[in-house]
Amino acid sequence: MTDVEQSTARGARKLRTGRVISDKMDKTVVVQVANLRSHPLYKKVVQRRENFKAHDEGNQCRVGDLVRIMETRPISKDKRWRVVEVVEKAR
After folding, report:
1. Between the CA of residue 89 and those of 16, 45, 64, 66, 68, what are the distances in Å?
2. Looking at domain 14-88, what is its CATH homologous superfamily?
3. Is the four-CA dihedral 88, 36, 31, 19 of positive or negative sign?
């Protein structure tokens, strides 16, 4: 059973796609997820960015990789996400 199939079997788990901005920690990467939102008053489209610490068991991610992360149980003080797959390797 893949991670995405488990997500529907256990309940809806959040999935995000973002770029790895740091891989300096052991088995942890920092992933930046960007969302486009319309400003409530001025209606201008604004890019909001959020950083997540994600568990990378095999230390396979590098800075610049596009990865998909999934919400999971707390792994440490800050880690609540884990890397599901590397969508695109950095050039």
Report:
1. 17, 28, 7, 6, 12
2. Nucleic acid-binding proteins (2.40.50.140)
3. positive
| 56, 66 contact by CB (below 8 A) | no
Task: Show me where the domains of the chain are located.
Answer: 14-88
CA 48 to chain centre: 15
Give the tokens for residue 2: 């893949």
- pLDDT tens, residue order, the chain (91 aa): 566 666 567 788 999 999 999 999 999 999 999 999 999 999 999 999 999 999 999 999 999 999 999 999 999 999 999 999 999 998 8
